[in-house]
Structure formats: C-alpha cells, structure tokens
Specification:
Blueprint (H helix, E strand, L loop, with lengths): L2 H22 L3 H22 L7 H13 L7 H18 L7 H24 L6
Length: about 130
C-alpha cells in the first residue's frame, strides 16, 4: 500500500469518527456528508490499486462499481451504499426540501464501517510487491 493510500484510509477513519459525533450532536445531514467522504476516500484507495484516478465524483463512483463490485472483488452492496450516501450528501448540502434523518445517518455510518472493513480485508490480501 502506498503512503497516499495509507493517508486516505486515515482520512476515512477520521471522517467516520466525525460522522458519529455529528449525528450524536443532532446534525444528521452533516454526518451524511462526512460519511460520504469516508466511503469516497476508501473507493479512491481501491482505485489507486489499479492506478486509476478521476476528476469527478460520478466518474469515481462508476469506476468503483465497475472495477470492484461488479467484478466480485468487493460485495455488490458497497457500490449501492456509496451511491445512496452520495445522494444523501447532495441533498444535505444542496437541497432545502430533503432532510437526512438521524436514522438514515446512522444507517450510512454502519454501512461505511462495513465498507472500511471490506476494503481492509481486500488490501490485506494484496502482496506488497504487487503495488
């Protein structure tokens, strides 16, 4: 794993910690935003395994699904969860008529925790000399 990937995993963990605090303090929309970035960083880590980089969120999301979940490397659910939390983040950040509930935010956090565990499991299987 590269230094960049290690740093992105740390950012994902920090974003998840912030998401937990935000939902506990009554800010579920902001929690969803931090949860999205946790998953975004983790998707980036995986794509870097294949030396893939993207300039837009939608391109990264599509490539993650294509390269890792549709191929069976990671569970298919993870791509759907990434898209779901991206929609929640967009609603929270840009819309005024859609609120993220505390329950929805908590669901996203649980999914991000699983996302992190699945990414770690795959990365632990990759021999160091393949990077």
């Amino acid at each position: 794993m590269t230094e960049e990937q290690t740093q992105l995993i740390a950012k994902a963990e920090e974003s998840l910690a912030a998401a937990r605090v935000l939902v506990e303090q009554g800010f579920p929309g902001f929690s969803a935003s931090r949860t999205y970035y946790a998953m975004f960083y983790l998707a980036t880590v995986m794509l870097l395994e294949k030396n893939l980089r993207f300039k837009t969120h939608s391109a990264l999301q599509g490539a993650f699904g294509r390269e890792f979940t549709q191929s069976g490397i990671l569970p298919l659910d993870l791509h759907g969860w990434l898209l779901d939390v991206a929609n929640a983040r967009n609603a929270s950040d840009y819309l005024t008529d859609r609120l993220v509930s505390p329950e929805e935010a908590a669901t996203h956090i649980k999914r991000a925790e699983r996302f992190l565990a699945e990414v770690r499991a795959v990365l632990n299987k990759v021999p160091e000399n393949e990077n």
